[in-house]
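Need residues for this backbone.
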């Protein structure tokens, strides 16, 4: 038994890197190994615990436990929590109860509610759930609770794929300094990535998806707060986060979904707003922020048309006057791209947009100018569009096709694009030397300006 356990624990074992558990205990084994790595790899602990508002500094000590039994409140719960995290910094201690599910097992709202009550009874600061379900941020929980419990106990969620991705980013970017800790974290990465562990990405839309697609195709307007729309929006949010994690592993940078400040702080508001937008437009939309990319990757799924699109929108270069010159600036960035599903949308001031295939513009860039010969485009949007036909309505194939589209778009388009920047200002011809901008030179120029005849005798400017 771990002798340094918190006082509110009746018993608890230190989380083991090599747990001795039954073959059937995938959940317990994965949780113990993860918690042990959290204790022994400083950068990993800081990365994850910072996401729940508890960064780990050099004077912090992270302790983790499994097989926990509490002094109070055991009669309030069914089952047993999977673990506990304790972070001690000086005389203060922060604790979080861990509940984990793996494989196809989902979290249960009644169990989470009982663990929130248990945490309150024992003055535990947070409950963290771990499963193959997804959330855009740890504070956006994938399970709706009928009762939230005490506001003094925070509720957070990590997906197993997020835990794998955080480990992968730290290894890929050489962010773990200690060689032994790097070895341990890499072994965790290998363990979580193995199919036998039970860690999975988001793989299917909810059962409501096929009927909703058919109804919309038949012309029905879905209700914003209907159960089927809320189920689809919840799944869409999970799929968006899975795309972020996948693209993070692909690029070695942390990719996240763009949320308004209000949506980031209120998960239910995000569901409500996205449900209302979907009901009115029949579009599922998200924007992914890739650090260093020229623009967000915008994703739009048109359910009525059964199409999916990834795009990036860049400001057209204003130092080029003609439409052809502005579009050619964009085409040069895509000179090695060869795809039939690439389109360029030319956005005009107050006139909407016109659309052409990349191939058409390469053959004759002037076809874009013929639409509005008196205007120059304001922005240029590069799109990859796919129409999966019958696969669109299938709960698994829809996700498979979307998760193929986004990396394809980023490799072919996203990583190539560069945002336009105005050219650096040039020195004035009369101010090319240091002596041209001394106080004395400026004073002399100011005196000449003051003594200009048209300034002294404005009535002499002539007619008009």
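Answer:
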């Amino acid at each position: 038994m771990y002798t340094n356990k918190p006082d509110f624990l009746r018993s608890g074992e230190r989380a083991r890197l090599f747990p001795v558990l039954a073959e059937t205990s995938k959940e317990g084994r994965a949780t113990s190994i993860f918690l042990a790595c959290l204790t022994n790899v400083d950068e990993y602990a800081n990365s994850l615990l910072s996401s729940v508002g508890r960064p780990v500094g050099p004077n912090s000590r992270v302790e983790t436990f499994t097989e926990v039994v509490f002094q109070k409140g055991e009669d309030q719960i069914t089952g047993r929590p999977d673990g506990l995290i304790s972070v001690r910094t000086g005389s203060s201690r922060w604790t979080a109860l861990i509940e984990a599910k793996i494989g196809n097992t989902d979290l249960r709202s009644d169990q989470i509610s009982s663990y929130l009550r248990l945490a309150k009874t024992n003055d535990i600061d947070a409950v963290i759930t771990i499963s193959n379900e997804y959330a855009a941020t740890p504070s956006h929980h994938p399970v709706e609770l009928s009762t939230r419990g005490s506001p003094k106990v925070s509720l957070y969620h990590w997906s197993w794929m997020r835990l794998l991705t955080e480990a992968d980013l730290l290894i890929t970017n050489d962010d773990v300094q200690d060689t032994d800790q790097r070895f341990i974290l890499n072994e965790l990465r290998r363990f979580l990535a193995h199919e036998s562990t039970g860690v999975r990405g988001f793989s299917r839309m909810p059962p409501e998806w096929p009927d909703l697609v058919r109804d919309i195709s038949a012309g029905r307007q879905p209700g914003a707060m209907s159960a089927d729309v809320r189920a689809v929006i919840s799944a869409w949010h999970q799929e968006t986060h899975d795309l972020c994690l996948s693209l993070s592993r692909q690029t070695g940078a942390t990719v996240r979904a763009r949320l308004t400040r209000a949506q980031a702080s209120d998960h239910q508001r995000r569901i409500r707003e996205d449900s209302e937008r979907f009901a009115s437009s029949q579009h599922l939309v998200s924007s992914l922020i890739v650090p260093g990319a020229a623009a967000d990757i915008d994703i739009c799924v048109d359910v009525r048309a059964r199409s999916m699109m990834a795009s990036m929108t860049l400001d057209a270069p204003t130092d080029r006057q003609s439409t052809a010159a502005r579009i050619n600036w964009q085409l040069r960035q895509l000179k090695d791209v060869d795809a039939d599903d690439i389109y360029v949308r030319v956005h005009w001031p107050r006139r909407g947009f016109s659309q052409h295939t990349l191939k058409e513009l390469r053959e004759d860039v002037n076809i874009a100018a013929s639409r509005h010969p008196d205007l120059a485009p304001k922005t240029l949007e590069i799109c990859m569009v796919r129409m999966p036909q019958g696969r669109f309505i299938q709960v698994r194939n829809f996700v498979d096709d979307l998760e193929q589209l986004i990396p394809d778009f980023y490799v072919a388009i996203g990583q190539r694009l560069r945002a336009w920047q105005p050219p650096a200002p040039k020195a004035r011809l009369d101010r090319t030397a240091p002596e041209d901008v001394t106080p004395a030179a400026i004073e002399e120029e100011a005196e000449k300006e003051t003594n200009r005849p048209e300034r002294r005798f404005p009535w002499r400017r002539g007619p008009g």
